Amino acid sequence: MNSDNFFPKLQASPEILAALASKKVFLFDFDGVLVDSISDISASVNATLSYSGFRELPEETLRTFVGDGARNLIMRAFNASAGEGQKEHLSDDYIDSRLVWYKDYYNNHAVIRTTLFPGVMELLRKLKEEGAYSAIVSNKPLATSLIITERLGISPYLSSIIGPENTGRIKPAPDGLKAALEEVNKVSGSGGYSPENVLMTGDSPQDIMAGKNFGCMTCAVLRGYSPEEKLRNAEPDLSVGFAGDLLELFTCGHNL
């Protein structure tokens, strides 16, 4: 994808702005998009490693493991941490047992340092005021997403929160996006929104590919948890620094 298509804030083409203004359903990934949660995720993974007798890992390393669901996160962390004689213990059953411990610990420490990214609250409020619908589609365990959205005060602005438990599949499969749109159609009472009415916003190639597999417009968040080059290779329709930057683009589109 040509880097000229990666639009800085307020420099999207009129065509992109008009397309944004026409969207009625805004689907968001969660970690690295709406919330800056890497510190609490890392602390919880390291607590799991330490409890299990494994060495802790730097946050910068753990950041690269986020995005493919909690089990993959834990599996990657234990494989990266394992020393001599430890790898032989990393059976599927062992990883599953560590995953259970991690989820319980993380649910009790999910909002220690986790915060909303800049502009997120304002964006969600504006979308609701304009009659649009917002939802989360995340590979994160659903219970944890529910805890964080409630404590950070954004639950009233969300029509649906979808996790891997809802469909049994994670992104880049489009199943979560489909489930979220079905929920939005129930809430809206219209029943008529289709992928053409949807914008999927995420910070990973998995998010962009999920949107493409679903057949909707996609937006990459460049200041999330994935390297920009990987996002560029996924060829999103547009990009922003933070998800909150969509507020100005959305407003500009309505003012065309």
Task: Describe the 3D structure.
Helix 11 links the parallel strand 7 (217-221) and strand 8. The chain has 256 residues and is of the alpha/beta class. It has twelve helices and eight strands. The protein has helices spanning 14-22, 38-51, 59-63, 70-81, 92-108, 120-129, 142-151, 164-167, 175-188, 205-214, 228-234, 246-254, and strands spanning 25-28, 35-36, 115-116, 133-137, 160-162, 198-202, 217-221, 238-240. The radius of gyration is 18 Å and the shape is elongated. Helix 10 packs parallel to helix 11. Mean pLDDT is 93; it is low at 1-10. The strands form two sheets. It has a six-stranded parallel β-sheet, with helices on both faces. Strands 2-3 form a two-stranded antiparallel sheet. It is 47% helix and 11% strand. The longest helix has 17 residues, at 92-108.
Task: Produce the secondary structure layout.
Layout: H1 14-22, E1 25-28, E2 35-36, H2 38-51, H3 59-63, H4 70-81, H5 92-108, E3 115-116, H6 120-129, E4 133-137, H7 142-151, E5 160-162, H8 164-167, H9 175-188, E6 198-202, H10 205-214, E7 217-221, H11 228-234, E8 238-240, H12 246-254
Parallel strand pairs: 1-4, 1-6, 4-5, 6-7, 7-8
Antiparallel strand pairs: 2-3
